[in-house]
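STRUCTURE:
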C-alpha cells in the first residue's frame, strides 16, 4: 500500500485522488484555521510557489480534531485561506486525522510510523515520495520552510531548468 491508494474530496467537492500525483512528491499537512500554527499557511504557500513548477504538490487537510480549531464550513475555510494567506494549493474537505474514524491516509501513516507518527496537533507535515512511499514527517513546530523539510523535498524534484 502507498499514498497513491488514497483519495480525498477537494474543498470544492471534486475528487482529489492522490494517484493523480504519481511521480510527484506530495507534502500533506493537517491544518486548522484557528490554531497558533495557522500562520504556517503562508509558508506552505511559499513552498508551493517555489517548487510547484518542479512538481511539488502541497495539500492541506483541514481537521477539527485538535482543540476544535477548525469549526467552519468548507466555504469558510476556503475563504479564510484565500483572503488571509493567499492559499491556492489544493485543500481537501474537513477530515478526521486521528483515531479509528481517521481518513485512510492518516491511518496508513499511523501504520507506517506507529501511533507516535500520527498527527499530534494541527500542521503535522508528511512528505510522500514520487513512488507513493512515505519520505518524511515533521511535527507542528517545524515550519514548512525549515531546512530539514527543504533538504528532503529538493532531492525528490527534477533539477531546476537552466
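SEQUENCE:
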Amino acid at each position: 500500500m502507498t499514498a497513491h491508494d488514497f483519495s480525498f474530496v477537494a474543498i470544492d467537492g471534486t475528487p482529489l485522488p492522490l494517484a493523480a500525483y504519481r511521480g510527484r512528491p506530495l507534502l500533506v499537512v493537517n491544518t486548522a484555521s484557528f490554531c497558533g500554527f495557522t500562520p504556517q499557511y503562508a509558508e506552505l504557500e511559499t513552498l508551493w510557489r517555489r517548487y510547484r513548477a518542479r512538481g511539488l504538490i502541497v495539500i492541506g487537510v483541514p481537521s477539527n480534531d485538535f482543540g476544535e480549531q477548525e469549526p467552519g464550513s468548507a466555504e469558510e475555510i476556503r475563504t479564510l485561506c484565500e483572503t488571509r494567506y493567499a492559499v491556492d494549493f489544493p485543500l481537501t474537505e474537513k477530515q478526521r486525522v486521528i483515531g479509528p474514524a481517521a481518513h485512510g491516509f492518516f491511518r496508513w501513516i499511523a501504520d507506517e510510523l506507529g501511533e507516535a507518527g500520527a498527527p499530534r496537533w494541527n500542521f503535522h507535515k508528511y512528505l510522500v515520495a514520487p513512488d507513493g512511499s512515505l519520505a518524511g514527517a515533521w511535527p507542528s513546530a517545524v515550519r514548512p520552510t525549515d531546512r530539514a523539510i527543504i533538504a528532503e523535498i529538493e532531492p525528490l524534484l527534477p533539477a531546476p531548468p537552466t
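REMARK: The chain has one domain: 25-156.
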